[in-house]
């Protein structure tokens, strides 16, 4: 639709099945309205009439990143544009996590929730699952919501939520932007079905160029290596090893070096569903069984998380997090409220 002043808008209606009361709805609208950044979708207003609750957002002409890359009418994004989109998304998440007055975990970062304006500037959208958190807590335990393929293992398995869940999802999105394919594709040969696993294998064998979208006639090889390395850091099994988004921005911008990725990313298939601590504890001897995880007593504790001595090596940890890594809160902060029930 179009407003009287000529601005094009997108209208989103809350599902009637949502359990949110009017006061809570209004509080969360005020929260989203208070968060403003060039890489976040603008909320123009809302409307409440009986059981109908409507949100009015800015309209973005180029739709979503997944349509731009995977859709039948893809935009044929060149390498420079894809790289800029990833930097923009990283900046938006860094703002939510570290710079905004209201600290927010988005909880549903994925290619379809990244919209593109007429200039292909990325805008993070759909805060329907977002949660607030404060500086006094390391994490929240909450019901799992989000999209499979982008869910961090510790959150998907046990509802253990920090801003590092968004970092994990960003890593998946970055790999999708590089490769031009979704995070899973059952039509491919077995070793290529899951993007994280395929990217890690190519990283190990120094064949990153094989991961880059074949539709790209040219690309910057050094930038591709940097992007994949950063994405794999973001998708590490332990949330404490994932860099804060401010450091992701700095690495993508070339302001700081990207540390060597020496451990594979976290896969949901690696975790024992009946073990509430195994998501952060890995067996010291991976050569005998890479999917086996030890009891908590084998790990060291950092910020309340139990880490494998092999994964959380001090040099790697320091290099990823920086000298002041603790000021970001290694395992995040907590939230007080949520917003759910959106339908398109």
UniProtKB/TrEMBL annotation:
This is Protein kinase domain-containing protein. It is a single-pass membrane protein. PANTHER family: CYSTEINE-RICH RECEPTOR-LIKE PROTEIN KINASE 3. Gene3D superfamilies: Phosphorylase Kinase, domain 1, Transferase(Phosphotransferase) domain 1. Pfam families: PK_Tyr_Ser-Thr. Residues 1-261 form the Protein kinase domain. It comes from the Eukaryota. It comes from Eucalyptus grandis (Flooded gum). Its main location: membrane. It is found in: Membrane. InterPro entries: CR_Ser/Thr_kinase (IPR052059), Kinase-like_dom_sf (IPR011009), Prot_kinase_dom (IPR000719), Ser-Thr/Tyr_kinase_cat_dom (IPR001245), Ser/Thr_kinase_AS (IPR008271). Keywords: ATP-binding, Glycoprotein, Kinase, Membrane, Nucleotide-binding, Phosphoprotein, Receptor, Repeat, Serine/threonine-protein kinase, Signal, Transferase, Transmembrane, Transmembrane helix. Coiled coil: none annotated. One of its GO terms (molecular function) is protein serine/threonine kinase activity. GO terms for cellular component: membrane.
